[in-house]
């Protein structure tokens, strides 16, 4: 599996990153902690499959599953002796009624608890999971720099940011990575965020590469969403896709995938890997076979012209990544 280095940090990321946001819950949704998502046994099977395929970069957050995601990874590391490259994040509350944000004291407390759950002495990347309007960005970046000096993190970055958020972070420090929503159905970052990353040598990592399952053909015109799907459990971020133009595009995309002898999800992932400014994408599989499908995208190489033809199928609206997440949202 190909990897990319983040500037001069020494951190190297596999281009396909294992997203662990469904271990013990569905992202940072407090109402689903311990009630949805994968059990430790199921998470272990996913991690084993990823590791066997060379997907050795894992992405999590302190609030995923209320800490259950980090704990599952830590248990797997202890059981196998394998040490993935780890990204974790902080901002959202660990449970209903608990605090959130990016103040220095909270960051220093949260990294300690993350390291304990992960059963490691440092993480490779630590991200601000969302901008904090109540904390000066200088305080947040200063805390991250302090953690680098302490050896608890190797590098830091930001997530769910607009171009203005990124400019503010750049004025305060040296973020190594932006992690934002980006896919064939969400290309708003192409206007400003991606050019900024290119200008400053910042890595760019896409989350929600399948737009919550929309790019797999899971959701069909006029049909009820499948049981347990994101459109059933957390439809809010994807409501804008309930549009005939989107369904038209998905049906055309399905035909192209069939003509190429592949599935829609693999083709959508391959489109991302064909984007020159993309460092990596985060795949959040629910089953081992989903891991294999994401890894298969690395073998399906698209030319720039082919990638442009796929992008032209889809209508473009406002990027979801420009919407500030609430403390309970991934």
Describe the structure.
The protein has a single domain, classed as NADP-dependent oxidoreductase domain (TIM Barrel, Alpha-Beta Barrel). It has helices at residues 40-52, 68-80, 104-118, 137-150, 163-172, 193-200, 230-233, 244-259, 264-273, 288-296, 304-311; strands at 3-5, 12-14, 16-19, 57-59, 85-90, 123-128, 153-159, 177-181, 203-207, 280-283. The longest helix has 16 residues, at 244-259. Helix 1 (40-52) packs parallel to helix 10, helix 2 packs parallel to helix 3 (104-118) and helix 3 (104-118) crosses helix 4. Strands 3-4-5-6-7-8-9-10 form an eight-stranded parallel β-barrel, surrounded by five helices. The chain contains eleven helices and ten strands. The two termini are 27 Å apart. 49% of the residues are buried. Helices cover 36% and strands 14% of the residues. It is α/β, with parallel strands linked by helices.
Q: Class by helix and strand content?
A: alpha/beta
Largest sheet: 8 strands, parallel, barrel
CATH architecture: Alpha-Beta Barrel
Query: What count of helical segments does DSSP give?
Result: 11
Q: Give the integer mean of the pLDDT values.
A: 92
> What share of the residues lie within helices?
25-40%
CATH topology name: TIM Barrel
Query: How many individual β-strands?
Result: 10
Please state roughly what percent of the residues sit in beta strands, choosing from under 5%, 5-15%, 15-25%, 25-35%, 35-45% or over 45%.
5-15%
The total number of structural domains is: 1
The CATH superfamily appears as: NADP-dependent oxidoreductase domain
Main CATH class = Alpha Beta
């Amino acid at each position: 599996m190909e990897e990319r280095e983040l500037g001069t940090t020494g951190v190297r990321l596999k281009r396909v990153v294992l997203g662990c946001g469904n271990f013990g819950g569905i992202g940072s949704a407090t109402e689903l902690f311990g009630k949805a998502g994968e059990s430790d046994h199921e998470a272990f099977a996913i991690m084993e499959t990823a590791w066997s395929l060379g997907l050795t970069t894992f992405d999590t957050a302190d609030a995923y599953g209320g800490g259950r995601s980090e704990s599952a990874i830590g248990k797997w590391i202890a059981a196998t002796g394998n040490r993935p490259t780890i990204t974790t994040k902080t901002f959202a509350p660990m449970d209903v009624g608990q605090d959130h944000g990016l103040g220095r004291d909270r960051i220093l407390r949260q990294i300690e608890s993350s390291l304990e759950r992960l059963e490691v002495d440092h993480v490779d990347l630590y991200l601000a999971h969302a901008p904090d309007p109540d904390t000066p960005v200088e305080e947040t970046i200063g805390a991250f720099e302090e953690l680098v000096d302490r050896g608890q993190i190797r590098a830091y970055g930001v997530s769910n940011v607009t171009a203005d958020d990124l400019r503010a972070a750049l004025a305060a420090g040296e973020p190594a990575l932006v992690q934002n929503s980006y896919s064939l159905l969400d290309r708003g970052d192409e206007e400003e965020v991606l050019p900024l990353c290119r200008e400053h040598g910042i890595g760019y990592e896409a989350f929600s590469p399948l737009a919550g399952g929309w790019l797999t053909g899971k959701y069909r015109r006029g049909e009820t969403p499948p049981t347990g799907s994101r459109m059933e459990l957390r439809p809010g971020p994807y409501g804008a896709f309930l549009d005939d133009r989107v369904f038209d595009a998905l049906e055309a995309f399905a035909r192209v995938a069939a003509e190429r002898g592949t599935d829609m999800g693999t083709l959508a992932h391959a489109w991302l890997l064909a984007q020159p400014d993309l460092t990596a994408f985060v795949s959040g599989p629910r089953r081992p076979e989903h891991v294999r499908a994401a890894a298969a995208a690395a073998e399906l190489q698209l030319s720039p012209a082919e990638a442009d033809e796929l992008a032209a199928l889809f209508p473009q609206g406002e990027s979801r990544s420009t919407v500030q997440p609430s403390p309970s949202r991934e």
